[in-house]
Amino acid sequence: MSDDKTRPTAGQGVGFVKGLGVLSATNIVIGSMIGSGIFLAPSIMAGFVESSSTIVFLWIVGGLLTVSGALSLGELAAAYPHAGGQYIFLREAFSPLWGFLYGWGVFFIIQTGFIAAVSIAFAKYLGVFFPALGEGNVLFVLPLKLDWAFIHFSYKVVISSATLVAIACIGFLTGINILGVKTGALVQNIFTIAKIAAILVLVGAAFAFGRGDFNNFLPLLKPKLGLEALAKNMVLFAAAAVAMSKALFAYDAWYTVTFVAEEVKRPKRDIPLAMLLGTGAVTLLYTLATAAYLYIVPIGQTGKIAENRIASVVAERVMGSPGLTFITLAVLVSTFGCVNGLILSGARVYYAMAKDGLFFRSNSRLHPNYKTPHLALIFQGIWSVILTLSGTFSDLLTYTAFASLLFNSLTIVGLFVLRAKKPELERPYKVWLYPVLPLLYLVIALFFIVFIIIGDPLNSIKGLVLIGIGVFAYLYWRRRSGRQSASKASIS
């Protein structure tokens, strides 16, 4: 199947606008990655692994894993600079089924799950300024129950003020991105610069003015199980893997710039460069921020922080009440910008799938004036809203990070497949240290995939079940697409 299928046909008369330079592309990488995770995840991780140095080590490993993945994926992005990113890469490396399953996972789990989780985090922090808008203000509870044959299911959907705030955030930013890629990129650039500056200010203040203790990092790399891991009877490796899943959530979305490849001015050069610059910068920022937190807050207190707001606790201890206000504003800016980047990029995957006849046809349309996949953006927004009602912040982190890591690993395998399958393919950029770098990514990723399943089987199974359902959806859309093609052929 040709990769040209992702390009607008001449008959449509509507195509994407090439409005993104290397700065905007890099800001999409950084802006999509830096959201709520770095402000909350270190505290969540301490509930599984009680060791400051080990937690910092996990962030370093996660960063190296991410940079390795970005460098590897850059080769595919330069070879296939079309809307859809990994959907295209998996389709070309394996088959349309695997491309579809990735796109299905992006829609039902990965991208929309991240959008939902980060929107919830935005609402949680807004509640610091306006308690009436926080999670504590429960508006109503909707009980859901199903008793049929051997199926027994019960769940309570809790609608709080924060839920409505998260939904409003998704709706507003979906609307912004319908107005054009340049509008969405401008918002992204502003918020990305602001969030980088905020993290650097907090890190600098913590080490310069905070009364921390470097002894907090001792003993080096000798972890013990945290309270959450003990409550779930985890082994140490499983606890470390689940803790890592929280860091990987914060690192994720580095690949989203490949989704908007058709809107980058020089995609064959700028996309690999943007992924390298973006992931490298974020790795440095995350490691410094985590070290600053744990320098100020001893590990015994880290996992017990209310609502895991470790950045707020550190800012208040270092800068007093003004610090709390500062970091709360910083988190709001970060989460808002992150949601924007995720919304901007994700819809391009469903657009590419719809162009191939493997998703709702309406998603293949571009707005006649704004040149954006407006209906794909609306579909994505609706499902993201549904996911805000489906689970806790920590649960969303685990099963979205798990599914994303699974497909990222499969895509890196696709790099090896395409090297053998299409040696003649033009590759403007080739991954450094091939095959060592991609293999390093796969070995580390496989370790964490296995132990995330062991440590949190329920949320891992949720992700696998949703992906598995995609096989039936693929068969339906493929059959439907075949019938439509046959019908057009008979008419002609």
Description of the structure:
This protein has 492 residues and is mostly helical. It has a single domain (12-481), classed as Amino acid/polyamine transporter I (Up-down Bundle), CATH 1.20.1740. Helix content is 69%, strand content 4%. It contains 16 helices and two strands. The protein has helices at residues 22-33, 37-46, 52-79, 86-93, 96-129, 161-178, 181-209, 227-231, 236-251, 267-296, 299-302, 310-355, 374-388, 393-421, 436-455, 457-491; strands at 138-148, 151-160. The protein has a two-stranded antiparallel ribbon with strand order 1-2. The longest helix is centred in the last third of the chain and has 46 residues, at 310-355. The protein is globular and about 65 Å long.
Keywords:
mainly alpha, 492 residues, 16 helices, 2 strands, Amino acid/polyamine transporter I
Number of helices: 16
Query: Radius of gyration in whole Å, from Cα?
Result: 22 Å
CATH class: Mainly Alpha
Task: Kindly report the CATH topology.
Answer: Amino acid/polyamine transporter I
Number of strands: 2
Q: Main sheet, how many strands, which sense, barrel? A: 2 strands, antiparallel
Any idea what the CATH superfamily is called? Amino acid/polyamine transporter I
Instruction: Give the percentage of residues in beta strands.
Output: under 5%
Strand arrangement in the largest pleated sheet: 1-2
Average pLDDT value?
Answer: 85
- Write the element-wise H/E pattern from the N-terminal end onward: HHHHHEEHHHHHHHHHHH
